[in-house]
């Protein structure tokens, strides 16, 4: 009798069971990977530029040889095709950029910096000839028809000297779908919101919003400072989304939301890139997320009074402090922002971290 045989048999079955479990895990992982990865596409957005003209049209580029490690620079654009399906005249994935943000994720310093660029930002006469007077029209009306995101990225670089490593372009429906998939979110509305006729549509205070309400809130700019106040209102929404995801959402629920929203998203990020970004964001607190609006104010150029001018000196300061590599400085004169007059004055924003944005006390 050989007493070692039962032990060997038990060991063999354990090995077989472990192997089967590993195969099952790998199979599930591959299924999830291909299921979600197939949803990601560049679509009509295309690709970012492979090279840029020198910032501001200068002969030499002060940022040409700047390289960074452990930093993600992301361009986020939300396309505005109209609130209703009947108003979506350009076709799926096309339209003006109703929301534009430049996002810098600095792994080394554990910091996320977000620059909110007003949709009506005046690009200056030179860029206007090739694109459009407002930055929001560059995506749709720029010269690049196969790579429309390159139009927006080129203008952002020419004006601000900010290069994007990757991009995400979303249809405005993505916000509606995201919020509805999350079952609505609680957010704090910092002031009474009125429609174009002056009727109060949302009162100041905490409210649980669904997708349609969130979209209407994000679009609201019926104030004297229009886009500038709307960007502040959007900060309240971002703070609410951040708080909800960070406090209540494990990765499984986040993937469910991502799957529902993916139809409305164009990106050059891979599934692994997105998973890495998500995990990086989970390591951040609200105090690590800095958000700032471009300083400036309403201007009129050639009879067009619906433009937003950017104040150069203060903008250069903010960019150097929060959106440049360490040791890199770009002066106001080196930026491509046009020189404009501000008859109604300039709005200056020092920026704030998300823990300084009031959020709803209730989480539902």
Structural commentary:
Strand 2 and strand 3 form a beta hairpin. This protein has 364 residues and is an alpha+beta fold. It starts with a helix and ends in an 11-residue tail after the last strand. The model is unreliable at 22-34 and 83-91 (pLDDT under 50). The chain has 2 domains: 1-38; 43-185 and 224-356, 3-Layer(aba) Sandwich (Aminopeptidase), CATH 3.40.630.190. The strands form 4 sheets. It has a 7-stranded mixed β-sheet. A two-stranded antiparallel sheet has the order 5-8. The protein has 10 helices and 13 strands.
* CATH class term of the largest domain: Alpha Beta
Strands, count: 13
Biggest β-sheet strands, sense, barrel:
7 strands, mixed
Q: Helix share of residues?
A: 25-40%
Tally of helical segments: 10
Low-confidence stretches: 22-34, 83-91
**Which word captures the global form?**
globular
Rounded Rg: 23 Å
CATH topology of the largest domain: Aminopeptidase
**How would you state the average pLDDT, rounded?**
82
Return the CATH architecture of the largest domain.
Answer: 3-Layer(aba) Sandwich
The tally of structural domains comes to 2
For the record, give the distance between the C-alpha atoms at the N and C termini, rounded to a whole number.
67 Å
Q: What structural class results from the helix and strand content? A: alpha+beta
